[in-house]
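Forum > Structural Biology > Help requests

Title: Can anyone predict the 3D structure of L-fucose isomerase?

Hi all, first post here. I have the sequence for L-fucose isomerase but no way to get a structure on my laptop. I'd be grateful if someone could post the structure tokens.
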Amino acid sequence: MKFKSLIGELPKIGIRPVIDGRLDGVRESLEVSTMNMAKNAADFLSKNLRHADGSTVECVISDTCIGGVAEAAASADKFTREGVGVSLTVTPCWCYGSETIDMDATIPKAIWGFNGTERPGAVYLAAALAGHNQKGIPAFGIYGKDVQDSNDTSIPEDVQEKLLRFAKAGLAVATMKGKSYLSMGSVSMGIAGSILDPDFFESYLGMRCENIDMTEFIRRIELGIYDKEEYEKALKWTKENCKEGKDYNPTEKQKSREEFDKDWEYVVKMALIGRDLMIGNPKLKDIGFAEEALGRNAISGGFQGQRQWTDHFPNGDFMEAILTSSFDWNGIRQPFMFATENDSLNGISMLFGHLLTGAAQIFSDVRTYWSPEAVKRVTGHTLTGDASDGFIHLINSGASALDGTGEQEIDGKPVMKPWWNITENEVEKCLEHTTWGPGMLEYFRGGGYSSTFKTKGGMPITMCRINIVKGIGPVLQIAEGQTIELAEDVHNTINERTNPTWPTTWFVPNLTGQGPFKDVYSVMANWGANHGAFTYGHIGADLITLASMLRIPVNMHNVQENHIFRPSAWASFGMDKEASDYRACATYKGLYS
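Reply #1:
Sure, ran it for you. Structure tokens for L-fucose isomerase below:
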């Protein structure tokens, strides 16, 4: 982008080297090794993490080792001035527990206690975590499985995994804080996720809820409140790169070429305006619209569309698909998290995935479970391999990023890359394998265009969804699995039974043989809403860590137990991990409550 997307500096990771404060021999012998442990952790995190906008993650180390409350306060003061949003305490030795801990209850925090026998870092870790738990300030405990020698400065692989998992989730928490969700319109067709819940956004995410009426799009189009020069560039790019697909409308209802062209002009303007509404555009000030130039500082948003808009105007599908993709007429850029039908809960699910991976996300209906028997009856085909237990059809009309074609590659395999790793050639391939079908008038009386593509098989993906349940609050569902490909005739037969102008992904979740992951049907039957969001890769463990930081319980997942990483306090709420998660989240409530 040619201008900064969001207001506010990116959060930093604060590293707190904690030390045994006893002078006259003890502290002096530990100063160098303790500070070096902090520097080592900072170097590791900075080299292995990026913010979702592609920036390198910056670490801030306390000015001195922390041996007591005065130095803890000095460190907290520095972290406030430096914009630290995530706190990591490190130590190779015994220190004074509650005197040295980080007391900021809203900043995600972890303690890495060195596993060595010369100085009992593990003893401090246990004492400090007990202090955190007693004070109601949950913290993550990081402790290597194997004993290391005191002069060993390496970071074991199991410690690396936890450091990265904690830091990625913590940065996501800190990045959301203070940003906005922009609701463009209101409730679409009675979909619960588009009933904006301010308490969820404010108490759990630390975000604002901003609202506009969809008539703002009409006003800006009619008054020309958009960058005219960019509009001409965008329209030219669209005509050259966005191929029209088959028109499935009855012949007597099909639009003329002139009407199609006007729709293209309209939806391109909508895309520009939707973006400007979210993050602003300084060029609007130059044409006399200083207020509109500011935007809403929206890190996520959604467009109601149906039905009040789409019964009369071209739909928002082009806007949604282009904004959520990692590229447009300005080139490769960070994707926007933009929800179809203003499903804010799916928009936040998309945001979770993006902040953890830096990649574009796919918004879908969790449309249909196809059993092997049903596939055989309808197509005559016998399912085998990954699809042998059936599959789920993921499909929706709007906010499916074109990255979801699977036309990006690593080692010849289909992927969805972090946006900063995408090549121009991959952009061309994504566009080449996408067509834009004229809106089905039975759904969209005002016309418009929907992206049409088929996701390549063989991609590991993670689908997730936030739901709000009265009496509980928000809960998170997670399903790791993979995309599959069907034989062309099988795909066509099944796809033609629904709206064939929409992007399709065939999804098979990883099964555990138990509960909601007993079989593919059970995953579909236990999914909590009509929508889901998926990201490339198996990131279920990262999502679980993120949810625990926000105090959102996870009611459904297929992540291996040894990868689950939550604050140490969760162990005090019982031995059953799912039940203890619910009890802990109910006790601590939303992070910003």
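The chain has a mean pLDDT of 95. The domain at 180-588 is CATH 3.20.14.10 (L-fucose Isomerase; Chain A, domain 3).
Shout if anything looks off.
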